[in-house]
Amino acid sequence: MNPGIEEQFGPGSTVPEVVETRTLPITFSLEAKAVVPLFFQLWEGPTGATRSGLGKVEFESKRFAFRYVNLYKCFKGATGPPGANGSNGANGSNGANGSNGANGSNGANGSNRATGAAGSNGAGGSNGANGSNGSNGSNGANGSNGINGPAGRNGANGSNGVNGEPGPVEKEGGSGSEVAASTTVFTGFASQNATEEVVEQVMGVSTTFTHFFCYGPTPGAGTEDVLTVRVNGVSVSNACKITSGSINDYSEGKERVSITIGPGELFDVMVQQGSTAGGVSWALAP
Protein backbone atom coordinates (compact mmCIF):
# COMPACT_ATOMS: atom_id res chain seq x y z
CA MET A 1 0.00 0.00 0.00
CA ASN A 2 1.33 3.47 -0.91
CA PRO A 3 2.02 5.58 2.25
CA GLY A 4 0.24 8.59 0.71
CA ILE A 5 -2.99 6.57 0.36
CA GLU A 6 -2.74 5.36 3.99
CA GLU A 7 -2.10 8.93 5.18
CA GLN A 8 -5.18 10.33 3.42
CA PHE A 9 -7.63 7.43 3.58
CA GLY A 10 -6.42 5.31 6.53
CA PRO A 11 -4.81 1.83 6.77
CA GLY A 12 -6.31 -0.86 4.56
CA SER A 13 -7.86 1.69 2.17
CA THR A 14 -8.91 0.29 -1.21
CA VAL A 15 -8.23 3.49 -3.11
CA PRO A 16 -6.18 2.48 -6.18
CA GLU A 17 -2.97 4.08 -7.37
CA VAL A 18 -4.14 3.98 -11.00
CA VAL A 19 -7.63 4.80 -12.28
CA GLU A 20 -9.22 5.18 -15.71
CA THR A 21 -11.63 8.03 -16.48
CA ARG A 22 -13.49 9.17 -19.59
CA THR A 23 -13.23 12.49 -21.36
CA LEU A 24 -15.88 15.19 -21.01
CA PRO A 25 -18.15 15.82 -24.01
CA ILE A 26 -16.01 17.02 -26.93
CA THR A 27 -16.96 20.48 -28.22
CA PHE A 28 -13.89 21.18 -30.32
CA SER A 29 -12.34 18.64 -32.70
CA LEU A 30 -8.76 19.46 -31.65
CA GLU A 31 -9.35 19.39 -27.86
CA ALA A 32 -10.50 16.82 -25.28
CA LYS A 33 -11.00 17.36 -21.53
CA ALA A 34 -11.19 14.96 -18.56
CA VAL A 35 -11.59 15.31 -14.76
CA VAL A 36 -8.72 13.98 -12.60
CA PRO A 37 -9.90 12.79 -9.10
CA LEU A 38 -8.90 15.19 -6.33
CA PHE A 39 -7.04 12.63 -4.26
CA PHE A 40 -4.59 12.09 -7.12
CA GLN A 41 -3.90 15.82 -7.20
CA LEU A 42 -3.09 15.84 -3.42
CA TRP A 43 -0.53 13.04 -3.54
CA GLU A 44 0.97 12.18 -0.95
CA GLY A 45 -0.59 14.55 1.67
CA PRO A 46 0.73 17.67 3.44
CA THR A 47 3.68 15.83 5.03
CA GLY A 48 4.62 13.51 2.18
CA ALA A 49 6.38 14.12 -1.12
CA THR A 50 4.52 16.50 -3.39
CA ARG A 51 4.59 14.22 -6.45
CA SER A 52 3.07 15.41 -9.68
CA GLY A 53 0.86 12.96 -11.53
CA LEU A 54 1.44 11.16 -14.82
CA GLY A 55 -1.38 10.09 -17.08
CA LYS A 56 -2.25 8.95 -20.60
CA VAL A 57 -5.21 9.94 -22.72
CA GLU A 58 -6.48 7.90 -25.67
CA PHE A 59 -8.01 9.78 -28.56
CA GLU A 60 -9.00 8.25 -31.90
CA SER A 61 -7.05 5.03 -31.12
CA LYS A 62 -3.89 7.01 -30.21
CA ARG A 63 -2.42 7.54 -26.74
CA PHE A 64 -0.89 10.81 -25.51
CA ALA A 65 1.05 11.21 -22.23
CA PHE A 66 0.53 14.28 -19.94
CA ARG A 67 1.60 15.53 -16.49
CA TYR A 68 -0.46 17.52 -13.88
CA VAL A 69 1.03 19.46 -10.96
CA ASN A 70 0.36 18.38 -7.34
CA LEU A 71 -2.11 20.80 -5.63
CA TYR A 72 0.10 21.09 -2.54
CA LYS A 73 2.75 22.48 -4.83
CA CYS A 74 0.26 24.80 -6.55
CA PHE A 75 -1.09 26.36 -3.25
CA LYS A 76 2.21 26.57 -1.41
CA GLY A 77 2.97 30.16 -0.23
CA ALA A 78 5.81 32.15 -1.73
CA THR A 79 9.13 32.17 0.06
CA GLY A 80 9.64 35.30 2.20
CA PRO A 81 12.59 37.70 1.72
CA PRO A 82 15.80 37.06 3.69
CA GLY A 83 15.95 38.66 7.18
CA ALA A 84 18.30 41.62 8.01
CA ASN A 85 21.93 40.87 8.99
CA GLY A 86 22.75 41.21 12.71
CA SER A 87 25.27 43.90 13.94
CA ASN A 88 28.97 42.99 14.24
CA GLY A 89 30.35 42.30 17.77
CA ALA A 90 33.08 44.53 19.31
CA ASN A 91 36.75 43.68 18.55
CA GLY A 92 38.70 42.14 21.45
CA SER A 93 41.91 43.87 22.83
CA ASN A 94 45.35 42.72 21.61
CA GLY A 95 47.39 40.55 23.95
CA ALA A 96 50.90 41.64 25.18
CA ASN A 97 53.93 40.64 23.10
CA GLY A 98 56.12 37.91 24.62
CA SER A 99 59.90 38.47 25.27
CA ASN A 100 62.46 36.98 22.85
CA GLY A 101 64.20 33.81 24.01
CA ALA A 102 68.02 33.57 24.41
CA ASN A 103 70.05 32.33 21.43
CA GLY A 104 71.22 28.76 21.77
CA SER A 105 74.96 27.82 21.59
CA ASN A 106 76.36 26.40 18.33
CA GLY A 107 76.58 22.61 18.19
CA ALA A 108 79.91 20.80 17.76
CA ASN A 109 81.04 20.02 14.23
CA GLY A 110 80.37 16.43 13.20
CA SER A 111 83.27 14.07 12.32
CA ASN A 112 83.97 13.32 8.64
CA ARG A 113 82.56 10.03 7.37
CA ALA A 114 84.76 7.43 5.69
CA THR A 115 84.98 7.61 1.89
CA GLY A 116 82.32 5.47 0.27
CA ALA A 117 83.07 2.63 -2.15
CA ALA A 118 83.54 3.51 -5.80
CA GLY A 119 80.30 3.55 -7.75
CA SER A 120 79.64 0.95 -10.44
CA ASN A 121 80.46 1.82 -14.03
CA GLY A 122 77.73 3.60 -15.91
CA ALA A 123 75.87 1.90 -18.75
CA GLY A 124 77.70 1.78 -22.10
CA GLY A 125 76.88 4.53 -24.50
CA SER A 126 74.90 3.71 -27.66
CA ASN A 127 76.83 2.78 -30.81
CA GLY A 128 77.73 5.62 -33.08
CA ALA A 129 76.24 5.90 -36.55
CA ASN A 130 77.84 3.73 -39.25
CA GLY A 131 80.41 5.49 -41.32
CA SER A 132 79.86 5.89 -45.05
CA ASN A 133 81.11 3.08 -47.31
CA GLY A 134 84.60 3.51 -48.67
CA SER A 135 85.19 3.57 -52.41
CA ASN A 136 85.69 0.21 -54.16
CA GLY A 137 89.24 -0.93 -54.40
CA SER A 138 90.76 -1.83 -57.75
CA ASN A 139 90.37 -5.42 -58.97
CA GLY A 140 93.13 -7.74 -57.99
CA ALA A 141 95.12 -9.69 -60.55
CA ASN A 142 93.55 -12.93 -61.79
CA GLY A 143 94.75 -15.94 -59.89
CA SER A 144 96.28 -18.92 -61.64
CA ASN A 145 93.95 -21.69 -62.77
CA GLY A 146 93.28 -24.29 -60.15
CA ILE A 147 93.90 -28.00 -60.62
CA ASN A 148 91.13 -29.77 -62.51
CA GLY A 149 88.75 -31.52 -60.17
CA PRO A 150 87.91 -35.21 -60.46
CA ALA A 151 85.50 -36.23 -63.16
CA GLY A 152 81.87 -36.02 -62.12
CA ARG A 153 79.61 -39.03 -61.97
CA ASN A 154 77.56 -39.94 -65.00
CA GLY A 155 74.18 -38.27 -65.03
CA ALA A 156 70.93 -40.20 -64.97
CA ASN A 157 69.73 -41.65 -68.25
CA GLY A 158 67.47 -39.30 -70.13
CA SER A 159 63.87 -40.22 -70.88
CA ASN A 160 63.12 -42.08 -74.09
CA GLY A 161 62.54 -39.89 -77.09
CA VAL A 162 59.28 -39.77 -78.96
CA ASN A 163 58.80 -42.65 -81.36
CA GLY A 164 59.67 -41.68 -84.90
CA GLU A 165 57.38 -42.03 -87.87
CA PRO A 166 57.18 -45.55 -89.29
CA GLY A 167 59.87 -46.23 -91.87
CA PRO A 168 59.15 -47.14 -95.47
CA VAL A 169 57.19 -50.37 -95.89
CA GLU A 170 58.25 -52.81 -98.62
CA LYS A 171 56.13 -55.76 -99.64
CA GLU A 172 57.52 -58.82 -101.40
CA GLY A 173 55.78 -61.98 -102.65
CA GLY A 174 55.72 -64.68 -105.25
CA SER A 175 54.16 -67.89 -106.49
CA GLY A 176 56.10 -70.15 -104.09
CA SER A 177 56.12 -72.83 -106.83
CA GLU A 178 56.15 -73.16 -110.65
CA VAL A 179 53.31 -71.47 -112.52
CA ALA A 180 52.06 -73.48 -115.48
CA ALA A 181 52.56 -71.95 -118.92
CA SER A 182 49.73 -69.84 -120.40
CA THR A 183 47.70 -69.82 -117.13
CA THR A 184 46.40 -67.05 -114.83
CA VAL A 185 46.87 -67.37 -111.04
CA PHE A 186 46.81 -65.08 -107.98
CA THR A 187 49.90 -64.88 -105.73
CA GLY A 188 50.46 -63.87 -102.10
CA PHE A 189 53.72 -63.71 -100.21
CA ALA A 190 54.77 -67.27 -101.16
CA SER A 191 51.76 -69.00 -102.64
CA GLN A 192 49.56 -69.20 -105.74
CA ASN A 193 45.95 -70.16 -106.32
CA ALA A 194 43.32 -69.83 -109.02
CA THR A 195 40.95 -68.42 -106.33
CA GLU A 196 42.01 -64.91 -105.30
CA GLU A 197 40.58 -64.95 -101.72
CA VAL A 198 42.91 -67.81 -100.79
CA VAL A 199 46.10 -65.74 -101.24
CA GLU A 200 44.99 -62.14 -100.40
CA GLN A 201 47.06 -60.35 -97.73
CA VAL A 202 45.90 -57.64 -95.29
CA MET A 203 47.69 -54.26 -94.99
CA GLY A 204 48.68 -53.03 -91.48
CA VAL A 205 49.51 -49.36 -92.13
CA SER A 206 48.65 -46.99 -94.94
CA THR A 207 51.47 -47.06 -97.51
CA THR A 208 51.99 -45.52 -100.95
CA PHE A 209 54.12 -47.54 -103.39
CA THR A 210 55.84 -45.99 -106.43
CA HIS A 211 57.96 -48.92 -107.71
CA PHE A 212 56.78 -52.36 -108.90
CA PHE A 213 59.41 -55.01 -109.68
CA CYS A 214 58.75 -58.48 -111.20
CA TYR A 215 60.87 -61.57 -112.04
CA GLY A 216 59.96 -64.75 -113.93
CA PRO A 217 60.80 -67.17 -116.75
CA THR A 218 61.57 -65.61 -120.11
CA PRO A 219 58.49 -66.31 -122.26
CA GLY A 220 58.57 -67.69 -125.78
CA ALA A 221 58.41 -65.48 -128.84
CA GLY A 222 55.21 -63.49 -129.18
CA THR A 223 54.19 -63.93 -125.50
CA GLU A 224 54.93 -62.15 -122.18
CA ASP A 225 54.52 -62.56 -118.41
CA VAL A 226 52.13 -59.90 -117.06
CA LEU A 227 51.93 -59.15 -113.27
CA THR A 228 49.21 -56.75 -111.94
CA VAL A 229 48.63 -55.45 -108.37
CA ARG A 230 45.06 -55.87 -107.12
CA VAL A 231 43.46 -54.16 -104.05
CA ASN A 232 40.19 -55.48 -102.64
CA GLY A 233 39.75 -57.63 -105.80
CA VAL A 234 40.33 -54.76 -108.28
CA SER A 235 43.36 -54.16 -110.54
CA VAL A 236 44.90 -50.80 -109.61
CA SER A 237 48.26 -50.40 -111.33
CA ASN A 238 50.26 -50.43 -114.50
CA ALA A 239 51.31 -54.00 -115.15
CA CYS A 240 54.92 -55.15 -114.68
CA LYS A 241 55.84 -57.15 -117.80
CA ILE A 242 58.56 -59.68 -118.69
CA THR A 243 58.99 -59.83 -122.48
CA SER A 244 60.56 -62.44 -124.79
CA GLY A 245 63.88 -62.05 -126.54
CA SER A 246 66.23 -62.42 -123.57
CA ILE A 247 69.00 -65.00 -123.84
CA ASN A 248 68.57 -65.77 -120.12
CA ASP A 249 66.08 -68.29 -118.85
CA TYR A 250 64.70 -65.72 -116.34
CA SER A 251 64.20 -61.97 -116.83
CA GLU A 252 63.33 -58.94 -114.69
CA GLY A 253 60.77 -56.21 -115.27
CA LYS A 254 59.99 -52.95 -113.46
CA GLU A 255 57.29 -50.29 -113.60
CA ARG A 256 56.66 -46.86 -112.06
CA VAL A 257 53.34 -46.87 -110.23
CA SER A 258 51.31 -44.87 -107.67
CA ILE A 259 49.44 -47.27 -105.41
CA THR A 260 48.13 -46.41 -101.90
CA ILE A 261 46.90 -49.32 -99.77
CA GLY A 262 45.18 -48.34 -96.51
CA PRO A 263 45.15 -50.26 -93.22
CA GLY A 264 42.78 -53.24 -93.31
CA GLU A 265 42.63 -53.39 -97.12
CA LEU A 266 43.37 -56.68 -98.95
CA PHE A 267 45.90 -56.96 -101.77
CA ASP A 268 47.60 -59.59 -103.99
CA VAL A 269 49.33 -59.81 -107.43
CA MET A 270 47.68 -61.45 -110.42
CA VAL A 271 50.08 -63.39 -112.76
CA GLN A 272 49.23 -64.01 -116.41
CA GLN A 273 51.97 -66.50 -117.38
CA GLY A 274 53.51 -66.52 -120.87
CA SER A 275 54.38 -69.60 -122.90
CA THR A 276 57.08 -70.70 -120.45
CA ALA A 277 56.33 -72.33 -117.13
CA GLY A 278 58.27 -71.30 -113.97
CA GLY A 279 58.11 -69.63 -110.60
CA VAL A 280 57.58 -65.84 -110.36
CA SER A 281 58.31 -63.21 -107.67
CA TRP A 282 57.48 -59.52 -107.18
CA ALA A 283 58.23 -56.56 -104.93
CA LEU A 284 56.48 -53.26 -104.09
CA ALA A 285 58.61 -50.37 -102.78
CA PRO A 286 57.88 -46.72 -101.77
Describe the model.
This protein is 5% helix and 26% strand. It is mainly beta and 286 residues long. The strands form three sheets. Strands 4, 5, 6, 8, 9, 10 and 12 form a seven-stranded antiparallel beta sheet that branches. A four-stranded antiparallel beta sheet has the order 3-13-7-11, with no helix packed on it. A hairpin with a 2-residue loop joins strand 1 (53-59) and strand 2 (62-68). The longest helix has 7 residues, at 3-9. The model has no long low-confidence stretch (mean pLDDT 80).
Question: What brief labels describe this structure?
Answer:
four-stranded antiparallel beta sheet; single chain; 286 residues; seven-stranded antiparallel beta sheet; Jelly Rolls; 3 helices
In short:
With 286 residues, the chain is mainly beta. The protein is 5% helix and 26% strand.
Helix and strand element order: HHEEHEEEEEEEEEEE
Q: Give the overall silhouette.
A: elongated
How much of the polypeptide forms β-strand, as a percent range?
A: 25-35%
What's the average pLDDT?
Answer: 80
CATH class of the domain at 171-285: Mainly Beta
Largest sheet: 7 strands, antiparallel
Which structural class best describes the helix and strand composition?
mainly beta
**What would the CATH topology of the domain at 171-285 be?**
Jelly Rolls
| Rounded Rg | 71 Å
Terminal-residue CA separation: 126 Å
| Percentage of residues assigned to helices | under 10%
Number of helices: 3
- CATH architecture tag of the domain at 171-285: Sandwich
Say how many strands there are: 13
Low-confidence region ranges: none
